[in-house]
Structure formats: C-alpha cells, structure tokens
Amino acid sequence: MKKLFILLLLILLPLHGVIFAKEKLVISTWGYNG
User: Fold this and answer.
1) pTM for the structure as a whole
2) CA–CA separation, 28 vs 22, rounded Å?
3) Which residues of 9-34 are buried (b: 16+ CB within 10 A; e: fewer)?
C-alpha cells in the first residue's frame, strides 16, 4: 500500500509541476500582451 502511494506521488508531482509551469507561462504571456 505504501509503495503504491509513493508511486502515485512520483507520477503526480511531475504532472503537477508541468501544469504549474504551463499556468505560469500563460500568465507571463498575458503580462507581455496586456
């Protein structure tokens, strides 16, 4: 069970990082355009 949880973390953390980076990129792009 604990191994599954760690595996889930390893999958979700990079995914969250990608989403966060994408949102940051969108915000900075809006900043330049606005």
Assistant:
1) 0.50
2) 10
3) eeeeeeeeeeeeeeeeeeeeeeeeee
> Of 29, 30, 26, nearest to 18 (Cα)?
26
SS3 label, residue 16: helix
Distance CA 28, CA 6 (A): 33
Side chain identity, residue 31: G
pLDDT, tens digit (0-9, with 9 covering 90-100), for 1-34? 899 999 999 998 998 889 989 998 888 887 776 5
